[in-house]
Amino acid sequence: MLTIEQILPIIAQGETLTVEFKSDKNRLHDKDLIEAIVGLANTNGGYLFVGVEDDGEITGLHKSHDNAQGLMSFVASRTSPSINVNATIYTLEGFKIAVIKVLRSMSLVATSEGLIQRRRLKADGSPESVPFLPHEFIQRQSSLKLIDPSAMPVLEIEASQLDPIQRLRLRKAINTYGGDRALANLDDEQLDHALSLIVEQDGKYHPTLAGLLILGTEELLKRHLPSHEVAFQVLSGTDVKVNEFYKKPFLETFEEIELQFRARVEEEEIQIGLFRTPIPNYSRNAFREAFVNALVHRDYYRLGMVQIKLDDFGLTINSAGGFIEGVSLDNLLVTPPRSRNSLLADIMKRIGLAERTGRGIDRIYEGMLRYGRPAPDYSQSNSTTVSLYLSNAKADFEFLKMIIEQEEKQGFEMPIDTLIILSRLKDERRLTTADFAESVQKSETYIRSVLEKLTEAGLIEAHGVAKGRSYTLSQQIYQQQGEKTNYIRQMGFNQIQQEQMVRQFIEKNNLIRRADVMDLCYLSKDQAYKLLKKMVDSNILESQGNGRTRFYTLV
């Protein structure tokens, strides 16, 4: 149940995919009310505000809707299957409004008249409700993990129509990529059954969707799976150097794309101890995992393609279909492995093309972070596309040396959590436990245990106590990288020095903001706030403005 303090900001934000307003000045029609609720339930759930205009103006409820229990019963009676909503009546600005909370349904919901609606975002970013079309049903069920599209039989095709050359390519892949050796000893029919590439129905064998993708001919794929397409593009500035499109079987497409990619991998070597280590501009392992993920987890019932684009700034891989239910930007690193196409994902693991632990995402991160490059960026993903960007920023050789030397000392590879922490400290110098939690996507309690181990290993140093504690790379690491002066700067300055620096900044610039103090004194947001507050309490500074506009001047 929302509080009034929570409701006002939601209304001020306007309508979104999960928030809808309905005017009730002239009594909202029953049909419109139910359709709005069905649309929310069939998308991501959310809140329906009755008594609020489209522009957010609060105009109030019609008396016929001034009963929360009645609204809930009405919704249950007019939806199929019946859905339970939570309705609450509030009084805002002298008007009553109803806030109806709608949960995301795990099955398709229709009005009692048979209309199935869903919500989507228009090109301008505003939401709308549209009919839920039959071809979208499988997409919905797949995203909820109610069905596995890749295991569904393609009844229009018989197993005899599949391409034996692709089966040879499959056997080659098992040997090349270290797949399940037991598969190599099976004959063709046994292999097809072992990987569920074909299924029997009514006495005939038909390929599954996964079987069609792996063993189908190009002609069969174009006719029965037109959404399967991969684009490989290379751009230099605005010039298009390569623009190839593939509608070939899965493994053949992978081989040809990988050849295109490998031709553009450049390496330089550095000396680490007795050995020379090659440093590629792109990690082959990271690319392979990312590309296979894009092919395996895409929505094959949605028109679109897998697009690989190399430009002056980096590598982008786009895949049709958003993250599957339960996966988001906030839990990519920690969510249990799951796939929209479970059978296809399992086949890729068994033949060795995908990480068998299901943690291919770790390989993608490792392929960037161990070379001192920025972490993989999924921020441009949305409800219809997963987008991955890998920067081609120059490798940090000193950082890589430190990683390799530490791994040799420990006798095992550094885990992803450690790489993330060290990478952030390399770039941002001084951070708190809370700062790391978002990047590692784990609890602060867990983060503290990792930080303690890194401190004991002499890789980082802790400063301060309790909530004010922050961390930097250790003096040893800075010295190894020839950055002794940077270490001195990261140790920070005593409070008198910090206050003097703030004074000098204001004398030169007339005012200072908290962000300036963080940058100037290498402090966290909380530490900068405490320093400024102390100087205000000591009548050294005067605070002016509020929130983001707040700044400080000398008294």
Task: State the main characteristics.
555 residues; alpha+beta; 5-stranded mixed sheet; 22 helices; 22 strands; 40% helix; flat
Give a brief description.
The protein has 555 residues and is α+β, with helices and mostly antiparallel strands. It contains 22 helices and 22 strands.
Structural overview:
With 555 residues, the protein is of the alpha+beta class. It contains 22 helices and 22 strands. The strands form 8 sheets. It has a 5-stranded mixed beta sheet with strand order 12-11-15-16-17, covered by helices on one side. The chain has a 4-stranded mixed beta sheet with strand order 1-2-5-4, sandwiched between helices. It is 40% helix and 20% strand.
